[in-house]
């Protein structure tokens, strides 16, 4: 093989490899999820219907990575900051459920990185669904202190 053809082949191979590496970033997320996938605090807002009436709420959901959940929120019904605790489970396929106040059940689907989740309330008489994005590795949904 002559030098110009060899040089052209090396340049073509190097260029193709470089562009492929830039175009397809490697996803370093785990293939499976667990309770540890949800760790930290997630900011959310909801719009929907509860008991046939318009409903909205927003706040923080915090997960400890071991099955305990806390939520700090304000809703259009109570119109005051509220706090509750609960538990959650996560399946290997990155789906799971969260039970709050013994009666409120949400099913959720988590990005394998744990940075994002979507949930649908499956208890009660309403249409409530939202997504939530992790905003901190700390547990921000804590019992508010009252003066």
Describe the structure.
The protein has 1 helix and 9 strands, in the order αβββββββββ. With 147 residues, the protein is mostly beta strands. The chain has a domain of 102 residues: Calycin beta-barrel core domain (Lipocalin, Beta Barrel). The protein has an 8-stranded antiparallel barrel with strand order 1-2-3-4-5-6-7-9. The radius of gyration is 23 Å and the shape is globular.
Give the strand line-up of the largest sheet. 1-2-3-4-5-6-7-9
End-to-end Cα distance, whole Å, is: 84 Å
Give the name of the CATH superfamily of the domain at 35-136: Calycin beta-barrel core domain
CATH A-level architecture of the domain at 35-136: Beta Barrel
CATH class of the domain at 35-136: Mainly Beta
What is the CATH T-level topology of the domain at 35-136?
A: Lipocalin
Number of DSSP helical runs: 1
Low-confidence sequence ranges:
5-22
**Structural class by secondary-structure content:** mainly beta
Portion of residues within helices: 10-25%
Globally, the shape reads globular
Give me the Rg, rounded.
Answer: 23 Å
Number of strands: 9
Largest sheet: 8 strands, antiparallel, barrel
Question: From N to C, what is the helix and strand string?
Answer: HEEEEEEEEE
